[in-house]
Amino acid sequence: MLDAEVAIVGAGAAGLSLAHRLARTAPGTRTPSVVLVDAPPGPLRPPRRTWCFWEAGAGRFDAAVTATWRQLRVRAPSGREIDGDIEPLRYKMIRSDDFEHLVARDLAGSTAVRRLEAAVETVEDVPGGALVHLRDTTGGARFLRARWVFDSRPPGSLPAARTTLLQHFHGWFVRTARPVFDPWTADLMDFRTPQPADGLSFGYVLPVGRREALVEYTEFSPCPLTADGYEAAVRHYAEDVLRLGALRVLSTETGVIPMTDAPMPRRVGASVFRIGAAGGATRPSTGYTFAGIQRQTSAVAAALHRGRVPVPPPAHSARARAMDAVLLRALAGGRADGPALFARLFARVPMRRLLRFLDGRTRLYEDLAVGLHAPVGPMLRSALELPTLPRRPFDGP
Ligand SMILES: Cc1cc2nc3c(=O)[nH]c(=O)nc-3n(C[C@H](O)[C@H](O)[C@H](O)COP(=O)(O)OP(=O)(O)OC[C@H]3O[C@@H](n4cnc5c(N)ncnc54)[C@H](O)[C@@H]3O)c2cc1C
User: Fold this and answer.
1) What does the pLDDT read at residue 363?
2) For atom 6 of ligand 1, which residue has the closest CA?
3) Per residue in 263-284, pLDDT tens?
4) How confident is the model at residue 397, as a pLDDT?
5) Are 17 and 44 in contact (CB under 8 A)?
6) Name one Pfam family in it (predicted).
7) For a tag on the chain, would you pick the N or C end, based on fewer CB atoms within 10 A?
């Protein structure tokens, strides 16, 4: 039986961020003993991915950042460009491999954190803590006892919601024959893509040089596409919309991020908490999760360092979640024209303020001002409809 004060289940964005924050402490604070458990290589491990987020100035994980942008662009369906300088913020891209290496290097120098490769089967509350049931790499059963457990495994199913959409995407890391990209500008939403019958779609371009970029096709809609459907959609965007010319696909990325108004439980036992996407860190209206994970794990680490009960705080305020619920309903119900709505928001609200809004750093009057730039009729009807809708389990795509 292994023993620790803290067990972290899952070494993805959330588990690694929390372990990194617990590995070192300032003088005068407590350093809990930590075991970080991750599934062995295989089906439980998520594929490589890139995480983007924004922050002002230098950040904790800058050594792992591949690229940063100060200029962001949105393109309306007509092709009209909406550009924004987000100074003092920077839009940052981290590859999961680089993040893992950075955290592994820092954890190697810590005596507080031990790492363990095993598949977690269940976590149960026991008197004075929790017991983690593990299956190690030889298939043997093991147990880890901890005062507190932070579980970041993806939940088997999503909680019942009034609205659940999926943000699903497929991207190519490309190298082009000609210098076609502007490395200073990231394209957040390019609505020149063909729009699906249900939901909306857009292109996303993160250039890391004049000839290299991540080019993605994204949908907010009820169902993912087939592999062929994604290939065709990215190809159309790269060849016919962006007209990139000859190119080589260096690697690909595919993802599905649930966008749900369901409350995600963060405390699932007296000593057991959920963190990360499983703990509601995803902003429902955008799918951005990485920044929410940082807010959540930094609060948990601070509580542990001070010897307090480390309940993860909500990554997004009740007001932000309520506004997102209305937006999701308007999009899912087909009341709002998604591309027009987002293009109008970006055209009328300074990008810096929109990014602060998405981080939950705006005041009530600023939120209302953002809300007023959305189409008032559809949003109001969606807001009035919401309380009348039952929460339903998501049957899956
Ligand atoms: C392709 C992709 C791109 C994304 N890009 C962005 C982005 O640009 N910006 C952004 O903000 N968000 C993005 N997201 C959303 C979100 O940030 C990521 O999903 C992020 O990885 C969530 O972190 P997490 O720690 O909650 O979950 P994960 O990173 O998925 O980590 C879960 C961990 O649990 C482990 N695990 C699973 N089962 C077991 C088990 N039984 N036992 C032990 N360990 C187990 C896995 O090995 C994994 O390490 C993206 C998501 C995807 C899928």
Assistant:
1) 82
2) 51
3) 999 999 999 999 999 999 999 9
4) 59
5) no
6) Lycopene_cycl
7) N
- Six-digit token string for 135: 């299956």
Token pair in block for residue 206: 């993160």
Task: List residues near ligand 1 (CB under 6 A).
Answer: 9-15, 37-39, 44-46, 49-53, 119-120, 152-154, 253, 255, 257, 276-278, 288-290
Ligand 1 mean position, distance from CA 95 (Å): 12
Q: Tell which atom from ligand 1 comes closest to the C-alpha of 291.
A: 11
Residue 211, both tokens: 């000839």
The residue contributing the CA closest to ligand 1 atom 53 is: 255
Note whether 54 and 90 are within 8 A (CB). Answer: yes
Domain 2-56+96-158+264-305 has CATH 3.50.50.60: yes
Which pLDDT does position 365 carry in this prediction?
79
Task: Give the residues of the chain that fall short of pLDDT 50.
Answer: none
The minimum-distance atom of ligand 1 relative to the CA of 13 is 25
277 CA from centroid of ligand 1 (Å): 7
Mutate to test the pocket of ligand 1, among 37, 45, 51 (most ligand atoms within 8 A of CB): 51
Give the 3-state DSSP-derived string for the chain, with helices as H, strands as E and coil as C.
CEEEEEEEECCCHHHHHHHHHHHCCCCCCCCCCEEEEECCCCCCCCCCCEEEEEEECCCCCHHHEEEEECEEEEECCCCCEEEEECCCEEEEEEEHHHHHHHHHHHHHCCCCEEEEEEEEEEEEEECCEEEEEEEECCCCEEEEEEEEEEECCCCCCCCCECCEEEEEEEEEEEEECCCCCCCCEEEEEECCCCCCCCCEEEEEEEECCCCEEEEEEEEEECCCCCHHHHHHHHHHHHHHHCCCCCEEEEEEEEEEEEEECCCCCCECCCCEEECHHHHCCCCCCCCCCHHHHHHHHHHHHHHHHCCCCCCCCCCCCHHHHHHHHHHHHHHHCCCCCHHHHHHHHHHHCCHHHHHHHHCCCCCHHHHHHHHHCCCHHHHHHHHHHHHHCCCECCCCC
Contact 1, 145 (CB under 8 A): yes
Residue 367 pLDDT: 80
* Atom nearest to 283 CA in ligand 1: 11
